[in-house]
Amino acid sequence: xxxxxxxxxxxxxxxxxxxxxxxxxxxxxxxxxxxxxxxxxxxxxxxxxxxxxxxxxxxxxxxxxxxxxxxxxxxxx
Length: 77
Prior knowledge:
Blueprint (H helix, E strand, L loop, with lengths): L15 H14 L4 H20 L4 E4 L5 E4 L7
Antiparallel strand pairs: 1-2
């Protein structure tokens, strides 16, 4: 972000359970803060949405070589 850009504050209400999930995810990926985690998640979601709209699909390959298609709800057509 350019230093001349103003920041916009966004406030969200989370249930205690969702907050706990967010904190666990921050620990899992070593995010420096919840805000940082949300920014990273938004970047990933934007990438997935763009690629899905372009017709790409996503797969996960397990350690034993089994492939599964990933479905991202709301991330494209």
